[in-house]
Amino acid sequence: MTISLYVTSVPVFKQMLGSVAAILSKAEEHAVAKKIEPDALLQARLFPDMFPLARQVQVATDFARSVTARLAGLDVPSYEDEGQSFADLQQRIQQALSFLDGITPEQINGQENREIITRPGTPKEKKFTGQAYLLSYGLPQFFFHVTTAYAILRHSGVEVGKRDYMGQY
């Protein structure tokens, strides 16, 4: 049985980005209800050497876009990393979802053996097939940042649970 790169990428990215959007809404509501400065949540970290919440969300959207674009043989769209408010992060998620909505199964399926090189020309250059890139690099990276964003909010007292993390499936 063959794997559908589209089914294992785009719908998964969309589900989890929807989840991140929903938990960010809960976080913003929590901040208002508890009279917490939004930056206290947006800049919260699990440990000092880890990215704060806002950056975790930015990187998650980066991976959703870049992995999908590379699998489809497209240029990776870039967004500025300046947005640091809940509204900015929601907009960034919506931009990523709009990009994903424009990708068709035909653009990705059949690209299992496409050569994908991360950081070409650098000492950290890594070559993957399309399937290996998605399954052993792209998805784990994406899930790490989504999970960390969830964990930061949960640790910060926002009432989110597994259903919130899973999103709509």
In terms of topology, how is this protein built?
Blueprint: H1 10-33, H2 38-42, H3 53-72, H4 86-101, H5 105-108, E1 115-118, E2 126-129, H6 130-155, H7 162-166
Antiparallel strand pairs: 1-2
Helix pairs in contact: 1-3, 1-4, 1-6, 3-4, 3-6
Structural commentary:
The protein is mainly alpha-helical. It has a single domain (10-166), classed as Up-down Bundle (Four Helix Bundle (Hemerythrin (Met), subunit A)), CATH 1.20.120.450. It has 7 helices and 2 strands. The chain has helices at residues 10-33, 38-42, 53-72, 86-101, 105-108, 130-155, 162-166, and strands at 115-118, 126-129. The protein has a two-stranded antiparallel sheet with strand order 1-2. Strand 1 and strand 2 form a beta hairpin. Helix 1 runs antiparallel to helix 3 (53-72), helix 1 (10-33) runs parallel beside helix 6 and helix 3 packs antiparallel against helix 6. The longest helix has 26 residues, at 130-155. The model has no long low-confidence stretch (mean pLDDT 95).
For the record, the count of structural domains works out to 1
Biggest beta sheet summary? 2 strands, antiparallel
Question: Considering DSSP H and I runs of 4 or more, what fraction of the residues is helical?
Answer: 55-70%
Shape: globular
The CATH class: Mainly Alpha
Assembly classification: single chain
Strand content: under 5%
The CATH architecture is Up-down Bundle
Number of helices: 7
CATH superfamily grouping: dinb family like domain
Structural class: mainly alpha
Radius of gyration based on Cα positions: 16 Å
Return residue spans where pLDDT drops below 50 for at least 5 consecutive residues: none
- The strand order across the widest sheet is 1-2
Q: What do we call the CATH topology?
A: Four Helix Bundle (Hemerythrin (Met), subunit A)
Distance between the termini: 23 Å
Reading the helices and strands in chain order gives HHHHHEEHH
